[in-house]
Design a protein that fits this description.
Biased composition (Acidic residues): 1-16, 434-455
Strand content: 15-25%
Helix content: 25-40%
Shape: elongated
CATH class of the domain at 182-270: Alpha Beta
Pfam family, one: RRM_1
Biased composition (Basic and acidic residues): 408-425
Largest sheet: 4 strands, antiparallel
Subcellular location: Chromosome; Nucleus
CATH architecture of the domain at 182-270: 2-Layer Sandwich
Strand order of the largest sheet: 3-4-5-6
Main location: nucleus
């Protein structure tokens, strides 16, 4: 039996002699159904169905009778009928029905012509050519990428033209330039020619806080000068607050400065010469702007007055001088560590020692000792000042918070120190000890020589 002939399942009841012995099926209220040789049948969903021709009504085989199918099931069963018919047609295309064997057999061997219809049929049944699909997808991606690149170039070109147009308009715009609320400046004229920058700043600061430059942090208060560097008698001052402009115009305008009546008015700026984009300052970053605004806001912060007994933090540090000499430091490479340890132990009787620094290059032999509180540092000054150590009188005082005692070592001193330290490492002892031993040997040799001369 060929695979293309539907087999009868266990629960399948095949109607006997349906085509040979036509019967009449009749339901109540319906006309009888006459079965003839044009009638076809198929096994669908475990049941036998049949119909006349292509457009006939579906009939269901029930108890050896053919009963018309209900109307609500006609469309669904018809779809199944056509699908099964199409599958059988495709399956039997290359097979013939053998009446003797009662089965489907392959057609006689013959070479089919390979043409477009054959290729199309083969691709429809066995696969799809993806080369054309991939090629089409690549073309679409390339078109999208080219379109995006073109749009990006158009945006850049539009931005460049806009910037160029702005520079051109600025270059052609001769006259006054309005900065709006960005610059709060006043123009001062009829100034005395012997005024200094400090005097001008002090005079203008009476009406507000002068704005510092964001890059140099210097006050934006300028006196105009000619090519020779002499004062022209006018100047400009920028304030942080806009209200300072009206205040300066009302208070300082007409006031006397070194017996001269100065004139103060709001500043207006004029563009002179051609615009040069290369001289334009680079824009500030967001972090720089934020830091600049924080600095300005600190100028207007209110801070309470310090108490009468307030003492600066520098008073916690004691400066001890004349504790050693440079000659001692050059001879003993370990003297710095020894002094640091000795000062730490010695000053612990006055309080908690936070830090000890030995300035080994300072000619005054300076050592700084830092305490947590001023009470402890005052006690250290009291007992250390005037003390005599190894024949040297020490001086102890509180640090002023400004003086720097660290001295940069020269190359010669560094080389000398390195050699001394190498000698110390090689000898395994103190250079001073070696010097004393050498002096003793030299004295013994001198004494031996003297004894020989006396003999």
């Amino acid at each position: 039996m060929s695979d293309f002939v539907p087999e009868t399942e266990e629960n399948e009841e095949e109607p006997m002699n349906v085509d040979l012995e036509p019967k009449i099926a009749q339901k109540a209220g319906k006309e009888p159904v006459v079965i003839d040789q044009s009638f076809s049948r198929r096994f669908i969903n475990n049941k036998w169905y049949g119909k006349y021709g292509e457009e006939g009504e579906l009939l269901e085989h029930i108890k050896e009778d053919w009963i018309p199918v209900a109307e609500d099931e006609q469309e669904f069963l018809s779809q199944l009928w056509f699908e099964q018919e199409e599958q059988e047609r495709n399956a039997h295309k290359h097979y013939d029905w053998d009446e003797e064997k009662k089965e489907w057999v392959p057609k006689a061997n013959k070479t089919e012509e390979v043409n477009e219809d054959f290729i199309a049929e083969y691709q429809a049944n066995y696969g799809v050519q993806y080369d054309d699909i991939y090629k089409k997808m690549d073309e679409e991606l390339q078109e999208k990428a080219a379109k995006a690149l073109k749009e990006e170039e158009e945006k850049k070109e539009k931005k460049r033209k806009k910037k160029q147009k702005l520079h051109t308009e600025e270059a052609k715009n001769e006259g006054w330039v309005d900065f709006g609320d960005k610059v709060h400046a006043v123009y001062v004229s009829n100034l005395p020619l012997d005024i200094t920058d400090e005097e001008f700043q002090e005079f203008m600061s009476k009406c507000g806080v002068i704005q510092p430059d964001i890059r140099t942090n210097k006050p934006k208060c300028k006196l105009y000068r000619n090519e020779e560097g002499d004062l022209k008698g006018d100047g400009r001052c920028c304030y942080i607050k806009k209200e300072s402009i009206d205040l300066a115009c009302n208070i300082l305008d007409g006031s006397l400065l070194k017996n001269k009546e100065v004139k103060v008015e709001e500043a207006h700026f004029e563009l002179k010469g051609d615009f040069d984009p290369s001289k334009k300052r680079r824009k500030l970053t967001a972090a720089q702007k934020k830091r600049y605004m924080e600095q300005q806001n600190k100028l207007f912060e209110w801070t309470p007055d310090k108490p009468r007994n307030y003492r600066p933090k520098s008073d916690c540090t004691v400066i001890v001088k004349n504790l050693f000499t440079l000659e001692m430091m050059s001879k003993n490479a370990a003297l710095m560590l020894d002094l640091k340890e000795e000062m730490t132990q010695s000053c612990q009787k006055y309080g908690t020692v936070k830090k000890v620094v030995v300035y080994d290059n300072h000619p005054d032999g300076v050592v700084s000792v830092t305490f947590p509180t001023t009470e402890e540092s005052d006690m250290a000054v009291k007992y250390l000042n005037g003390r005599v150590v190894d024949g040297r009188k020490l001086t102890a005082e509180l640090w002023d918070g400004k003086t720097k005692y660290k001295i940069q070592e020269t190359e010669e001193d560094e080389e000398r120190r390195r050699k001394e330290f190498e000698k110390f490492i090689e000898g395994g002892g103190n250079p001073d000890d070696r010097n004393e031993e050498e002096e003793e040997e030299e004295e013994e040799e001198d004494n031996d020589d003297n004894d020989e001369e006396e003999e």
